[in-house]
Structures are given as C-alpha cells and as structure tokens.
Design a protein that fits this description.
The structure is a single chain. The chain is α/β, with parallel strands linked by helices. Helices cover about 40% and strands about 15% of the residues. It contains 25 helices and 21 strands. The strands form six sheets. Strands 2-3-1-4-5-6 form a six-stranded mixed β-sheet, sandwiched between helices. The chain has a six-stranded mixed β-sheet with strand order 17-18-16-19-20-21, with helices on both faces. Helix 9 packs across helix 10, helix 12 crosses helix 14 and helix 14 packs across helix 15. The protein is elongated. It comes from Ephemerocybe angulata.
Length: about 650
C-alpha cells in the first residue's frame, strides 16, 4: 500500500474549491480566500490511514491551463467540485472534465464533490442523488463516489478527503463492477484462494475456529461470539447456500465481501487481500512471494524442521483416501492455491518415490521438496506462500548451511541434502542408475538423454536420514555445466559412469577429467552393466589401476538390470559426508594455497620451531604489494624446512 496520497481539486470557477481546502485546514468558514490556495501537506499521524496527504488546489481560467494539466498528471485522485446552486457546473462534469482527463491519458479515481448544499432549497433524498450520479458512473468507471458538502457550515468537508484517500488506498475498480454490481473475476479468484487457505481441514466451510484464526490474522482481534452469530444470520438470510453445518461456505464468504464493498467498507476487503499478499492489481507481490533471504557464497539451503513439518502436515491434509500417497487429483487440489505443480516439466513423480500406481509417497514428497530447496530455494519460498505457510517469518521454514569449504576444513559435514553430478558416455547407463535410485523400473530400450534429469531419494546413514540428489546432464548440457565453476563448486560428489562391457566407455570419462578442472570434487567411479561380459578398456591403464593411482577406491560394479546396485547410493552419500576420503590425488590436491601454508607452518613447528628463513618468506609473501601465496611452490617450502639456522 502506498504511503502518500496526492489529492487534486478541479472544477469550474466559483464552485468553492479553495474554500473547501481552507475550511478543512481552519475547521471554519473563511469568506475571502485567495484564488488558488498553496499546496497543503497533512502529516500521516493526522490521517485515519496513517499516510502523508498532499492537497492541491487549481484554477480553471485560461492562464491556469498548463499548471492544471501538469497537476492532473501528478494526481493520485481527482475531486471534481461542482456547485449545488449552479447546474451548469454539474453538467460540465460528463461533457468536459471527465473526457478531459481521458484525453490527457490519466486514469485515476475520481470523486464528485457537490459543494454549497447550504444553498439548496428543501431536502434531497439518496434516491434523487443516485438518479443524477449513476448515469455518470455508468459511463465513466473511474468515478468512485459522490460526496455533498458545505464549506460554509462547514459540513462533510473532512469526508470529502477521507473518501478521496480511500479511493487511492482502497480502490473499487479492481474489486467491483459498478455497472453490473458484482465482484470482478480477479477479485473472486483471490477471495476463493484465501477461503481455501483458511479452510484448514479442507471440508469446504469455515467453522468458528477457522473464522477466528482468519479474523486474528487479518485484523489482530478475535471474532466475538455475538458478531459471529450476526454474520451467520445475515448470510443465512440473504445468500443461498452461504451457511452449511454452522459454517461459512465459499459462497457465503464471497457474499460478505460483496456487501462490504457495496456498503463502502472497501478497506475491510483490501485489508484481507493485502494480508494474503495481494497488490492493487490483485496479483501476489514479489516481496510477499520472495521475502529477503540471504544465502552466502558456498552455502546451500535446506528445509528446517518447521519446513518439513509444514510439508508433512499439508501432505496428510490432502491425502483424502489416507493411503499414504497423493494421487493426481489430490495433487491438483493441493496446488489449487498456486500457479500449479512446480515440477510439471520434470516428469514428476518420476523424479522421486511413488507407489505402484504412480502416486507420490510422503517420503517422495519430502524428498522432492528437499531437492527443490537445494537447487532453487526461491521456488520453495514462493510455494510456501502459495500453499499458506501459517507463520511469519516464512523464511523460518528454511535454513542456510555452513559453507562447504568450512565443512571440508573441519572434516565434518553438517548438511543433510547433497548434490551429485553423474557423468559418462552416451549409453553407459546413467539414466538407468538414476531411475533405480528413484525405485523406478528398468527400461531396456535405450533413449538418449536430451535434457537434464534430476532425481532424489533418502539414504540412511547410520540411522540418520540424508537426501541425495542425482543429476545427469546429457551430452547437450554436460560441457556447459562442467566448464562453469559456479556449477561445479556446488557439487558434493561427482560420479563417473562407464559401461564395463564397452571397450571405449572408460576413455570418455578419462578425457572428461583431463578437459575440465574437477579434481577438487570428491569422486566415485561406477562400472555399470556388470551382468554382461567384462571388456578390456581401450585406455593406457585399466579402471582399477587408474583409480588406485588417484588414491580412490576401485570402481563400484553394478547391474541395474538385475537389481545389483552394490549399495552405490550409500557410498555416494558417505563420500559427501567425508569428502576428503575421495579427492583425486589425495586431499592435498583440493587444498587452497592458504591451507597449504598453514600445513607447512605446522610441519615446521613440529620439527622444532619455525626457521628464520620461513618466517622471512611468509612475511614477504603477506606484505602489501607482494605477489601472494600463489608464488610459493612446494620445492621452496621443502628447501626451507630442510635448512634451519
């Protein structure tokens, strides 16, 4: 909601624009005022809506034209003033003033203000006023309302500016069709979504407890029993099907907001909409969907216990048949308050655990959200809003992990969700390995991977559940990923897959390792298709020797076809938890220059204290303007350690 309102008064000469402004400020009638009153600023603490209000007077003479047009373009709301004793000033509203605003390309709310009601002879009914105003409101939808006042008495002067403020802060146009006297489709959709989110037990009605929670969330106050009964009685009388089983139905909820708007209480409906994140265009705001959430470099994002609790509870609510899985219809209903299933393009639920009928299980559901949070936490944040995460701040459902480098330095990994890249030649069995991990059936027919495939499952490590995400890129995206340091730095493990029955398969991954700088990533080699005859690889050394030379365990032999996976996924998770155990060439290969410096200083100290030469060299390297740690190579360090004074 905006924090300031600019109100412009226009109208023919002599209708009393300047007098209205003066009467508001002086709280009394001033008979002689200047032609145009200077702009008035009203501080927020004085106004009911707690916004800064600017009131701008204008003239209608030929010399005022340029200034008037400039102010019309700057206004948030325009009050067109006419004089009750001057019918011509009223007639010019639809024939001159309103068309003039449109000609200038201005589309802001308009309030019609009938001044000098003290000069009217006799009483006028609301019906008579409506007969005059409704034809104008029908033709010009920007006209919000009409207020009659007297600057002389003064009477209803403050109401003029109150309604002007409301027209900006709580506009009618997005919510209500004044011609048809019905809620607009976008408003109906927003209110239906709010109703669905407030219907905690999904029984189609808001019971007393749910209405109280709705009242607390929106208005910070409980709903009194007498108020509740009054609402129910009114809805029961006027809205067919509005009450069922002593609860408020969706039809009743929509009826209430229609009545609020028709009775001029738009602030009630707008308060509800804004509490649920809607802007004036009745779309959820970006700040609501994506609140500020900083993720430092080298850190990842996981669901917190509160996040897992929310997704567990929402799963159980929508599992209507209580079979422990969400089928297609149940998922559609669950995502009805959102733009749709966020994983529709990923062949979900093939990406996670599902039962024999293809319904996603609770374990698969939590695993899928764990993967989504790791790979794109902004999607999780947005869907927490779409699905109605109940508490603020919503960021409490997520937690930021310790940096990977810190984990590796301490030798203890504190994270619970790990990312593993799966690379290998076409036809080596990568996709089959991923499908096996998600408990999907083996497919004998080979289909080349044309786009990235990602799957997730839980892995039990010493009684603790960890989530492992496996990604296969396909030949189209593999090079793009592996040459990008930002992408390789977020990988916890890289698995090289080769077909043990294909003589050329291992050469592909050997060349891959030479082409890209990947030795800082913990590594595992997997030999697939072990049910087939073992082939000698056309490579300078065989895979087992190759791995031993790198200080890695020999390739894990698996056969997805026969279901022999040798607990390879447990091995991957174990490596992620103990990354130093699987660095190609030993842990020293992944150490930074600073880490090597610390190691050499420690070694020297153990041998009997730092040498003078070492101290001098370190100071030289660290002094301002020096070439940095990269200039210190292992031979220098060895020479210094071996030559003590």
């Amino acid at each position: 909601m905006r924090r300031d309102v600019r109100i412009l008064l226009v109208g023919d000469e002599g209708v009393g624009k300047s007098t209205i402004v003066t009467s508001l400020i002086k709280e009394s009638f001033v008979p002689h005022v200047q032609h145009i009153v200077p702009e008035v600023t009203i501080p927020p603490e004085v106004t009911p809506e707690n916004v800064t209000t600017y009131i701008v007077d204008s003239g209608a003479g030929p010399n005022d034209r340029l200034h008037l047009e400039s102010e019309i373009r700057k206004a948030h709301v325009i009050c067109v003033v006419y004089a009750i004793d001057n019918p011509n000033s009223f007639d010019r509203i639809p024939t001159y003033w309103l068309p003039h605003f449109r000609q200038l390309g201005v589309n802001v709310p308009v309030i019609l203000v009938g001044n000098k009601i003290d000069l009217r002879g006799g009483e006028v009914t609301n019906e008579a006023l409506e007969e005059e105003i409704i034809p104008i409101m029908t033709e010009f939808k920007e006209v919000e309302t009409c207020v009659e006042c007297s600057a002389k008495l003064p009477l209803n002067v403050s109401e003029v500016f109150y309604f002007a403020q409301k027209a900006v802060l709580h506009p009618t146009a997005p919510l209500y069709d004044s011609r048809e006297h019905v809620l607009k489709p976008a408003c109906i959709d927003a209110l239906r979504r709010i109703f669905a989110l407030c219907d905690a037990n999904k029984d189609g009605i808001l019971d007393a407890a749910e209405l109280n929670e709705f009242q607390r969330k929106c208005f910070d106050a409980p709903l009194q029993a007498q108020e509740l009964e009054g609402i129910k009685a009114m809805v029961q009388e006027h809205a067919e099907g509005g009450i069922r089983d002593e609860g408020l139905t969706e039809a009743g909820f929509l009826y209430l907001h229609t009545i609020f708007i028709q009775r001029g209480r738009l602030e009630t409906t707008w308060t509800v909409l804004r509490k649920f994140g809607y802007a004036e265009d009745l779309r959820l705001t970006e700040s609501f969907l994506l609140p500020k959430f900083e993720v430092p470099p080298d850190c990842s994002v996981e669901l917190s216990p509160l996040g897992y609790q929310f997704f567990t509870e929402i799963f159980e609510i929508f599992d209507k048949d209580q079979d422990g899985a969400l089928n297609g219809n149940e998922l559609s209903e669950l995502f009805s308050t959102s733009p749709g299933n966020p994983w529709a393009a990923q062949k979900f639920p093939d990406t996670t655990l599902s039962d024999d009928s293809g319904s996603v299980t609770l374990q698969g559901w939590l695993a899928q959200w764990s993967m989504t949070t790791l790979l794109d936490h902004r999607t999780t944040l947005a869907y927490l809003a779409y699905l109605g995460y109940p508490e603020e701040p919503r960021t409490a459902a997520l937690q930021v992990t310790r940096p990977r480098k810190v984990d590796r330095r301490k030798g203890k990994v504190s994270r619970n969700v790990f990312l593993c890249y799966v690379c290998g030649a076409a036809g080596s069995g990568k996709t089959s390995l991923l499908r096996a991990f998600a408990n999907k059936s083996f497919q004998p027919a080979y289909e080349p991977t044309s786009k990235m495939i990602t799957v997730v499952n839980a892995v039990d490590i010493d009684g603790s559940e960890k989530y492992l995400v496996l990604q296969e890129f396909g030949s189209r995206y593999e090079a793009e990923t592996l040459r990008n340091p930002k992408k390789t730095d977020i990988a916890d493990v890289i698995v090289y897959v080769y077909d043990s029955s294909d003589t050329n398969s291992f050469s592909y991954i050997s060349n891959l390792r030479q082409q890209y700088s990947l030795d800082h990533i913990p590594t595992l080699f997997v030999a697939t298709k072990s049910d087939l005859d073992l082939a000698m690889q056309r490579h300078e050394v065989q895979p087992d020797v190759y791995c031993r030379r790198l200080g890695l365990q020999v390739p894990v032999a698996v056969s997805v076809k026969t279901g022999q996976t040798a607990d390879v996924f447990h091995s991957i998770c174990s490596i992620a938890l103990n990354p130093w155990s699987a660095i190609p060439g030993g842990a020293d290969r992944a150490m930074t220059a600073a880490a090597k410096l610390r190691m050499y200083v420690t070694v020297t100290a153990v041998l009997g204290g730092c040498t003078a030469g070492l101290i001098v060299l370190v100071r030289a390297l660290l002094r301002p303007g020096s070439s940095g740690l990269g200039a210190w190579t292992t031979p220098w360090a060895t020479w210094l350690v071996g030559h003590r004074r």
